[in-house]
Amino acid sequence: MNTRYNPNGASAVPITLNAPRPNERLRELSFSSPTLPAYVVDEPGILELEGPSVVVNPSCVSIPLHPAGLLDGLKPHGARRFQAVGLNITETAVAVSLDRLQQPRAEALRPGWLALSDLPGMAGQEETKGVQLFRSPRDRVATISARPDQLSPALPPERPLLWGVFMNLWFAPAGTECLIHNNHPFLEYHVQISGQGTMQKFRNSDPSTLYEEQLLTPGMNHDVYSVRPAGDGTYHYPWHQYFANTDCIWLAVEMIPEGPAPRPVSEEFESSCCVFHAHS
């Protein structure tokens, strides 16, 4: 693993994959593997990256780079590919190391990965037959508090909700069309891990109605799309799909509403972007 975590500003603590918990402030994610290590950091400290890694910020505050003279940072609900730099974590971050990954297709053969047609609720559905799309185990990484419109701008500016943040990996071989759809029970964005993929939008479920494409390379993500409530606890999305330009691994980040957030203690608190709570 090419990542070190320094919680106190002292010498960095190496992370080793063989330890079940390489550092008490780090947790190896359920989809981590020897060739694609993935960790969540959920306490303050410096995350030092040596080789290339994709870092995802699921929280509602920016992550500054370290040392402080580096002015760029990682925006909320964003991702970037970093190396030879530190990140000053104040709430949470997920790091996926890239320097050992050589055969992306082999990740989908690991225990716990399932073909799309074998996922709960998908078995027997005609549209999934023959689609070479595979999902890793899923992991909860955080709980955040935010008004719906602060995550997706078309949603109403209601009081803050608690949102469980879940992540999993997907793999698809080059040329795979990953099914056009327009409904989810969560808000989502995707982060490219390996290869090149494209997020596509359509006017309806017909692929000939394509009107927007966003190319994703490792470390890039798209924003949460503008959605509207469907009235049954789910969300209507623009018709969209992921297309694998090459053999691809990407990360899905799902934010699931879980009920009202605790009432703010002041108006200043309520006017802030959103508030982070420790993962559970």
How many angstroms does the end-to-end distance come to?
25 Å
Are there runs of 5+ residues with pLDDT below 50, and where?
9-22, 265-280
* E-strand count: 23
Q: Regarding quaternary structure, how should these chains be classified?
A: single chain
Characterize the overall form: globular
Instruction: Please state the CA-atom Rg, rounded to the nearest Å.
Output: 19 Å
**What percentage of amino acids are in beta strands?**
35-45%
Report the total helices: 3
Order of helices and strands: EEEEEEEEEEEHEEEHEEEEEEEEHE
Largest sheet: 7 strands, antiparallel
Mean pLDDT: 86
The share of residues in helices is under 10%
- Structural class, from helix and strand content? mainly beta
Write up what this structure looks like.
It is built from 3 helices and 23 strands. By secondary structure, it is mainly β. Strand 7 and strand 8 form a beta hairpin. The two termini are 25 Å apart. The model is unreliable at 9-22 and 265-280 (pLDDT under 50).
Mind sketching the topology for me?
Elements lengths: L2 E4 L6 E2 L11 E3 L9 E4 L3 E5 L3 E5 L5 E4 L6 E2 L3 E5 L2 E5 L3 E5 L6 H4 L6 E2 L18 E2 L3 E8 L1 H4 L9 E12 L8 E4 L2 E8 L2 E6 L7 E7 L11 E2 L5 E10 L3 E13 L6 H5 L2 E4 L3
Antiparallel strand pairs: 1-2, 1-5, 3-4, 4-11, 5-10, 6-9, 6-11, 7-8, 7-10, 12-13, 13-15, 14-15, 14-23, 15-22, 16-21, 17-22, 18-19, 18-21, 20-21
What is the structure about, briefly put?
This protein has 280 residues and is mainly beta.
Characteristics:
about 280 residues; 23 strands
